[in-house]
Please model this.
Amino acid sequence: MTAFAAILRKDLRLELRSGESTVALLAISLLILVVMVFALDASRARGAEAAAGALWVALVFSGMLGATRAFLAERDNHCIRGLLLSPIEPSTLYAAKLAAAFTFMAIAEIGSVILMVLFFNLNFDFTLVRVVPTLALGTLGFAALATLLAAISNRTRMGDLLLPILAVPMFVPALIAGVKASSFALGGAPESAIAQWLKILVAFDVLFVSAGYLLFDYVARED
Amino acid sequence: MAAPVVETHALGKTFGQHHALRDVEMRVLPGRAIFVVGANGAGKSTLLRILAGLSAPTAGHALIFGLDSRRLSARYRRRIGMVAHQSYLYPNLTARENLEFYAELYALPDPRETAVRWLERVGLERFADRRVRALSRGMEQRLAAARAMLAEPGLLLLDEPFASLDGEAVRIIMSLMRDAVARGASIVAGMHVVPEIEDLEFEVFDLARATLTRRPPTRDGGDAGRIARLRSLLGR
Model:
């Protein structure tokens, strides 16, 4: 637990010091939402469905950036080797990196939700609270997947290109579930309608958090 | 006889068609120092990375504390300290924060006090709150040595530990190496040339064309021995 807290605290301290990830994540979320507002039909762009779609596109792209950034600090001076050499379990390292990526993404999502409400003419009311479980589960799933893949891509020369190519197709089941659950939540649908999609997100999270926990040692180490 | 800290059998490493290491046989006992001497690209760094468990051999195996270097548990990894070409230090953290972070990873008591103590040992106490990115290469190397030795490891793997260091810094690192051997730690160090270290017994291996060969000990201790004796005659 000490090592987990130490790595997470170090990542957050580095981020607070530079602010690079949060600013980049917020900027990309803003750009995506602006593009989506203009790209979608004016009448449709006011609906919960369009807002949910735009929000999840922003989540996917900011998530990729967040996971990459969480590993970028370890690339400097080959710090990842210092971590792998230290007496911490690889699963602890994975959990700390996942927590860091989740935190960066969550901060960006708070900004994205505010922008979504403004751009898509929604109201700041209780419906936003109903989206929180969906977003939290989606963020956890994407962070789990992207952290695992970032550890692989971090070792390759074409890593920055490899991450989106691998992550986006693998995230499709959770993306569909997330968009559906979010549009139901924003549109005021009953809880039961949201719950069935949340189950898919939970299953996705369990699958990729477990995979990351078990496989991180193999993917992070060099050949 | 004590069990070897490092033991390799027919160790090999290839990168595509290129043989970086071939049939490396090595045995290091507790409290012994071995210097692996070779030119740039001879395979010293590769050998040290394999011994640290950071890289896998493509042939043979390396045993560290009697265990396969790729399967070392946390308990055994904490007994290895490594100084590599890269410092493994975070450029945007200060010198003290870096050491504190590693002290926490190694679950050392009072990480802050430990960090301060090691900063003093490597003569960087005045630069404790300076970010690593603002340190000179030599200072960063000293800090990397402190990072590697924080937990007083039983095996020190040093890759060109004297590179970029001035005379004072070289003396500090030599003193740390002597202290480590005195408390029973083993050292495997990769170097370009055999250094001149007083009060430290060491064996020399040459690494050339991917092959490691033991240099026969000279009766007068080689260049290092001759210089040490000359110094003592001159009263230095």
The two ends of chain B are 37 Å apart (CA to CA). Chain B touches chain A at residues 49, 52-56, 70, 74-75, 77-78, 80, 82, 84, 86-93, 97, 101-102, 104-107, 132, 147 (CB under 8 Å). The longest helix of chain B spans residues 167-182. Chain B has a mean pLDDT of 89.
